[in-house]
Write a structure and sequence with these properties.
The chain has 162 residues and is of the alpha+beta class. Helix content is 29%, strand content 17%.
């Protein structure tokens, strides 16, 4: 990585980003998210129907686990958003996503009982996607990069949405 130290070696252990994020992108994430406040109310689809660690996998983690296809056109490996856990500041986008899952055969088989969960971001870095990409179509989408080993901790910050 040239002259830069591995950011994982520079940051205190409790502030290290997840291990599946490439080192060179960790610098970009830290720079983009620097100074951003956490969100006190965000929504997420728990695709397997419950609040568990895999409900907080980042997009690349879902690719690695085989839940979604490795499509570099849709999920470019050089885009920091590919390594985030998506949350939304409004519920409506989660409702739309669940409706899409119910209509498609493959997703319906992989995620038969998706639910919406609500909580707050913590234990990571955040950025509203539209602040980074002015052409991003959804102003309610937030990229959340969890710190390594913190999925279990964030579980307690979420409940099923009624």
């Amino acid at each position: 990585m040239g002259d830069k130290e591995d950011i994982r070696d520079v940051l205190p252990e409790e502030l290290r980003l997840e291990d599946n994020i490439p080192e060179e992108l960790c610098y970009d994430i830290v720079e983009q998210a620097r100074g951003n406040e956490h969100y006190s109310c965000v929504y997420r689809v728990a695709k397997w129907g419950k609040i568990e660690e895999r409900a907080f996998l980042n997009t690349y983690g879902e690719i690695q686990e085989g839940y979604i296809p490795d499509d570099d056109g849709k999920y470019p490996k050089d885009n920091i958003g590919t390594y985030s856990t998506s949350v939304y500041t409004e519920r409506k986008n989660c409702d739309k996503f669940i409706n899409m899952l119910k209509k498609s055969v493959r997703p319906r088989k992989v995620y038969p009982f998706p639910v919406i969960i609500v909580g707050n971001t913590s234990n990571g870095l955040v950025q509203r996607t539209a602040d980074r990409d002015v052409n991003y179509p959804d102003p309610t989408h937030v990229d959340w990069w969890l710190f390594s080993g913190k999925k279990g901790t964030v579980l307690s910050n979420f409940v099923l949405c009624e």
